[in-house]
Amino acid sequence: MVTVGLTHFLIISTLLFSMGIYAIITRKNAVMVLMGVELVLNSANINFIAFSRFGNFGFNGQLIALFVIVLAAAEAAIALAIVLNIYKNLSTVNVDEVDNLKE
């Protein structure tokens, strides 16, 4: 029987972080970029909880992860409001085409 250790959590976190960075860099759609940011934040949450469980650092990883989740929810709400406003004014959500905020 295989026991789940810190290495397993770090591998999953690295994969999520890599996919998030890939989504942020390669996607032109603003909603997809936001989803990439969420993947990066979730990889940080996995690291916080894993180090809290397996490390003896004296901090509560679950409390920090809860703070990150609340912060991500607020970020998503504000960012989606900005994306909707950009779509209303420019009829596009591509981040490459949104370079003229004066018009």
UniProtKB/TrEMBL annotation:
This is NADH-quinone oxidoreductase subunit K. Keywords: Cell inner membrane, Cell membrane, Membrane, NAD, Quinone, Translocase, Transmembrane, Transmembrane helix, Transport, Ubiquinone. Its EC number is 7.1.1.-. It is an enzyme of class 7 (translocase). Pfam families: Oxidored_q2. Its main location: membrane. One of its GO terms (molecular function) is NADH dehydrogenase (quinone) (non-electrogenic) activity. InterPro entries: NADH_UbQ_OxRdtase_chain4L/K, NUOK/Mnh_C1-like. The chain crosses the membrane at residues 6-25, 32-51, 63-87. HAMAP family: NDH1_NuoK. PANTHER family: NADH-UBIQUINONE OXIDOREDUCTASE CHAIN 4L, NADH-UBIQUINONE OXIDOREDUCTASE SUBUNIT ND4L. It is a multi-pass membrane protein. GO terms for biological process: ATP synthesis coupled electron transport. It catalyses: a quinone + NADH + 5 H(+)(in) = a quinol + NAD(+) + 4 H(+)(out). It is found in: Cell inner membrane; Membrane. Belongs to the complex I subunit 4L family. GO terms for cellular component: NADH dehydrogenase complex; plasma membrane. NDH-1 is composed of 14 different subunits. Subunits NuoA, H, J, K, L, M, N constitute the membrane sector of the complex. NDH-1 shuttles electrons from NADH, via FMN and iron-sulfur (Fe-S) centers, to quinones in the respiratory chain. The immediate electron acceptor for the enzyme in this species is believed to be ubiquinone. Couples the redox reaction to proton translocation (for every two electrons transferred, four hydrogen ions are translocated across the cytoplasmic membrane), and thus conserves the redox energy in a proton gradient.
